[in-house]
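Work Package 3 (structural annotation) set out to generate three-dimensional models for the target panel prioritized at the project kickoff. During this period the team completed the workflow that converts sequence records into C-alpha cells, so that structures can be stored uniformly alongside our sequence database. As a representative example, we reproduce one entry of 275 residues exactly as it appears in the project archive.
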Amino acid sequence: MKFTAKKTIKTAIAGGALAATALLSACTGNNVAGNGSPVKNAAAEQAQTGGGQGAAAGESSGGDVNCSKHGGQVGAPGRPKMDLIAVAATDGTTPGCTEAYNVITEYYEKLPQAEGPGERVLDVQGKWTCARLTESGYEVTCGVPNSSLQLETRPAGSGKAPVEQNRKFPNSTQRVQFTGYDANLRMARFQLITRQDDPVDGKTYRLPLQKGGEVFSAATLCPGESVTIDDEGYGSLPCGQDQLVQQLREGNPVLALISVNGADQITTVKEIYRP
C-alpha cells in the first residue's frame, strides 16, 4: 500500500510538471506579451526576434496577426490606442508579436527625437524603421530594409484584415505627384493633385508598390526616343518599377495616374505627360 501511494503521488507530480511545461510552451509559442509589460514579459522573451513563418499570436485573418487580441493595444502618450498588427508579407513571413511590441514600444519612446512631420525613426531595435502612414493620422508602419518584415498599428477593430476604414485609397485611381521614396519602409511618397501643379491638400501620403506592378513612361520616367502616350495623355511605354524608384530616390518629382488595389498597394503607375 505504501508503495502504491508513493507511486500515485510521483505520477501526479510528473503529470503536473508536464501540464506546466505544456502551458509555458503554449504561452511562449504564441509570442504574446501578457497583461504585464510587453517588453519585459519573461514568458514571451523566447519569441522570434528575426521574424518567422507566421506569428501564432492574437487573431489571424488573411495572414495578418492582431497581436493586441492578447497583448493589449498600443499608442503614444496622449494619442488614440491602436491594434498592433504583424503584417503577413507575400512570401509568408510575419514578425513575431513579442518583436512587434518591442519595436513599437521603442518607437514611441524615441518619438521626441523623430524626423520631420512623418515622425520617422531609424534603427529601432537595431534594424527597423518606423513612421506614420500619413502626416495627419496616428497609424504607424514599420519595416526592415531588404526584408519583407512589416508591422502596423491600426484603429481598434480593424485588425482582422485590411479594411477600407484603415486604408486611404483602396480600389481607386488617383492623380498624384510622387515626391520621394522611403527605402526603409519600401513605400512611395506622394501628394494628390487636381491639376498638374496644384496639390489638393498639401498632405503627404505613403503607399507600397505592389510586387510586379506595372509602370508606364510618357517621356521622362524611362526616357525614350519619343513621347509615348495613349489617347488620354498617359504614358504607354512599359517601364520597370526600379526605374520609378530610382527617379524618386534622386528627388525627381513624377506626375502620374496610379491604380490602387484593396490592400492599398499601387498596382499601376502611368506617367502624366507634361509638354
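The chain has a mean pLDDT of 75.
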